[in-house]
What we know:
The protein is α+β, with helices and mostly antiparallel strands. It folds into three domains: about 1-95 and about 125-220, no CATH class; about 250-325, Phosphorylase Kinase, domain 1, CATH 3.30.200; about 345-530, HIT-like (HIT family, subunit A). Helix content is about 25%, strand content about 25%. Strands 1, 2, 3, 4, 5, 6, 7 and 8 form an eight-stranded antiparallel beta sheet that branches. A hairpin with a 2-residue loop joins strand 12 (about 300-305) and strand 13. Helix 10 packs antiparallel against helix 11.
Amino acid sequence: MSFIVMAEETVYTSTSLNEAQNWFELYKNETLSKWRVFRSTKSFGCTGLRADNVMKTKKILWSVKAKQGIGWSFDGVPRILVGKRQWMCHLGPDLCQKKKERYKRQKEERKALGFACGKNRNRKSKKVGCPAMVYLTHLIRFPEYKVTVNRIRARKAASKRLKDDIMAGKAIAAEHQFLLKLPDPSCHEGHPTCVVMAEPGGEPVQPVQKVQKVEPEIYWPDPNIGTTSHQELCPAAPIPVQFTSFENFEIVQILDSNEERKSIAVEGRFRDQEGRAVVLMQKQGFRNDQLAEVFSPAAQLKPIFQNDIYSNQTALLPPHLNELKVTTIYPAEEKHILRYQKEHVSFVTETPDLYNNVIRPYVDSASFSNQWIYNILEHKKEAERIVFEDPNPEHGFILLPDLKWTGKGLEDLYLQAIVHPRNIRSIRDLRGHHLPLLRNIRDNGTRAVIYKYGIPAHKLRVYFHYQPSFYHLHVHFSALTFEAPGILCGKAHLLTDVISNLEITPDYYERAVMQFTIRDNHPLKTKLDDIGYFGGGVA
Length: 539
């Protein structure tokens, strides 16, 4: 799911008509508004379009500017407009006004001629001329024909290739796209509406609903003609190994064992396969919907001791109640092993000079790959896990569950917001012109959590890590009931504090002295040791 705020209206993007209609129903319920269909094209919502009919009656579009209705900017993907539907507020303009005036005039003429015209009922119209409108546009996208530059020659070449492939009867990967434009409640005029508030005294909340991303559907199929593979057009990175068991796995060493978090990290290897692996395991908390099975005859108790009214036992629960959260990194490099190895930590007081002369060059030369992040931003991976997206390239972001959260319980809710701009590595790079991005994450991120999981903003911890685990700006969203890793001072910086600092001083994080903790086996610690930071008496 994604939505874009445009002036006082919001454009939602969905892959199915049902989801778009669900948003509309949610919006009507939240604002207590009623609507009537104003215009609708015949082909709107049709999913069985024939290739020849489409190419005869439809144009290939790359971008559309619209003062009214829905437009979109160039993103390199060609589209075909299938149809449109438009609703008007039920208290909008009186569309029958001219007909009523003509009927009244004819009645007065008949009455002047002496005809009996019956009782004169002059009813005042309930219409107040409310200008609020809802627009829904149905498109078909062709991501395989995406162009990287916005030039006429490139667009014409891609359009011709698309037309030729369609007319040749080739199976083409395509996606239905429904754009729903909902007005802000303040757009209604002449009558009251209901505005849902995020918090008492807070800003009005627009309804947000999750949309599950789906794989591209295939249109115009021909069993005798193959489909051009995406790998041929855009070579992909090697596919990671998928493990369904730990068969042939050998433990090399235990990296860390945390009794408080009930977790363990081990280094190992798979026999007959090259490379090392890091495996993280963590026991899960209890789920309320499974307590009936826990407190049942299926749970076998083994006594340990008993003293008067107090006793201790161990419980053997059914296997499906003993699932572990498992994260596997394979092939793992030395930096991954160092990251998860239990070690002592040290405090670093980072001045602007220390950052510019030591830490920033280290970050620039760090070999951690951000390709997995770009796969998420480009919807190549984990698209089905996206909770919310604002695709704006400057202040947009994607919100999705963190790998540490299984998604089965809300007590340990843990999400990450990954920003679309790729030139912001950490909070050190943030300046005053990034405030729209940060406010967007704060407002729409918490808004999405409210409507998807029912957890209000005052029950969330929203923060950055510094130093971060990877150098692409991201924000953590966790439930207050979850003691997530890295929430202590020396690591976490609350989003509201960061916004406030930049509002006061736009270059705050360029000039600030910042403290953070660092593992003693971290490569950055070695860099600091080389310049005598810890041995030279620097506090």
